[in-house]
Design goal:
The chain has 152 residues and is an all-alpha fold. It has 4 helices and no strands. Helices cover 50% and strands 0% of the residues.
């Protein structure tokens, strides 16, 4: 039987309002890029989030690695490091596409997170409060389940 590890083991404290700060930054960038010319409509925004999940699935079905084609990683992780002078500096120079654009399963999952944060910020949600409330609920639910199974 698999025992659930203490989720606080190796826990790193997150600065107060860090998720909220990131959500606001993501939303401001989305607005600046012209992606929300009008306030987001919930079904449309949810479809965009779902599209990112579909892209992650497609990357998986194609046998793609978790992350590839990104200068944000170390030179040894970038297959273009021998011909690219932007390793470690993605988005610099001409355009943002090309070999330095992050791709892969984990990158598409990151897009899910970013689109979700964008939507939550657009809706005026206190991201930190909601995420922590749900996390605490899940932890308590796990404790109840462990006691029920006699694993406490």
């Amino acid at each position: 039987m698999c025992k659930v590890l203490n989720p606080n083991h190796h826990r790193k404290e997150i600065a107060a309002n860090e998720h909220q700060r990131i959500a606001q930054e993501v939303h401001q960038n989305t607005v600046a890029l012209g992606q929300w010319r009008t306030p987001p409509v919930l079904p449309e925004a949810l479809c965009l989030i779902h599209a990112e999940l579909s892209q992650a699935l497609q990357e998986y079905q194609e046998g793609s690695p978790l992350v590839y084609g990104t200068c944000a990683l170390a030179a040894e992780d970038c297959k273009f490091s021998g011909v690219c002078d932007r390793v470690g500096r993605p988005g610099e120079g001409e355009g943002i596409d090309g070999p330095c654009k992050p791709e892969g399963i984990a990158v598409e999952l990151a897009d899910v997170i970013l689109r979700t944060l964008d939507l939550m910020a657009a809706l005026g949600v206190d991201v930190d409060a909601v995420v922590m409330a749900k996390h605490k609920y899940n932890l308590a639910a796990q404790e109840v389940e462990d006691r029920r199974r006699g694993n406490a």
